[in-house]
Design brief:
The protein is α+β, with helices and mostly antiparallel strands and about 160 residues long. It has one domain (about 15-150): Nucleoside Triphosphate Pyrophosphohydrolase. It has three helices and nine strands; from the N terminus they run βββββαββββαα. It has helices at about 65-75, 130-135, 140-150; strands spanning about 15, 20-30, 35-45, 50, 55, 75-80, 85-90, 100-110, 125. The longest helix has 15 residues, at about 140-150. Keywords: Hydrolase, Magnesium, Manganese, Metal-binding. Its cofactor is Mn(2+); Mg(2+). This is Nudix hydrolase domain-containing protein. GO terms for molecular function: metal ion binding; pyrophosphatase activity. Belongs to the Nudix hydrolase family.
């Protein structure tokens, strides 16, 4: 059974040289019928921006566990976290402090009807091009570009995606 309450507070947050460590995912699936790639974006809590699920990496979890937790809490999806797309240093709009963001692709296995932030966020499946247009964070757009490049590279195999 999964907990339907999001973690809150900053007591367990990881920091490195004063930067808060955050973890995010690009949830994806292949649409039935035509096999077209879709990614899942979510609204911010205040509903003014679209982004990929992300949040604080806590002391009691691995980076992959944090990525899975954030996808569950914010987007209501579970799946397989694949190899890291990279890390980015960015400045928080709300607090004006620097963060280090780690991004992963996640192949979605299940989309849940109930999840902790269901009443706070909207979730929308869309084509990569649409997601790139609506995503508000430059670093998430870069992660999306890395993800697409990885998928379209003729030299990579499926095994290269897994941790």
């Amino acid at each position: 059974m999964m907990c339907l309450v999001s973690r809150t507070g900053r007591e367990l947050q990881r920091y490195d040289m004063g930067r808060r460590l955050v973890v995010g995912c690009i949830p994806y699936r292949y649409k039935d019928g035509n096999g077209e790639l879709e990614v899942l974006v979510i609204s911010s809590q205040k509903g003014h921006a679209m982004m990929f699920p992300k949040g604080g990496w806590e002391l009691d979890e691995s980076v992959e566990e944090a990525a899975l937790r954030e996808c569950f809490e914010e987007a209501g999806v579970v799946g397989v976290v694949e190899c890291a797309l990279g890390k980015w240093s960015f400045k928080s709009k709300s607090r004006g402090i620097f963060h280090e963001g780690h991004m992963f692709p996640m192949l979605v296995a299940e989309q849940l009807e109930l999840w902790p932030e269901k009443n706070l966020r909207q979730r929308v499946w869309m084509k990569v091009e649409e997601a790139r247009e609506v995503c508000q964070s430059w670093w998430m757009k870069e992660a999306l570009d890395v993800f697409v490049e990885r998928l379209t590279s003729p030299t990579l195999t499926k095994q290269d995606f897994l941790n």
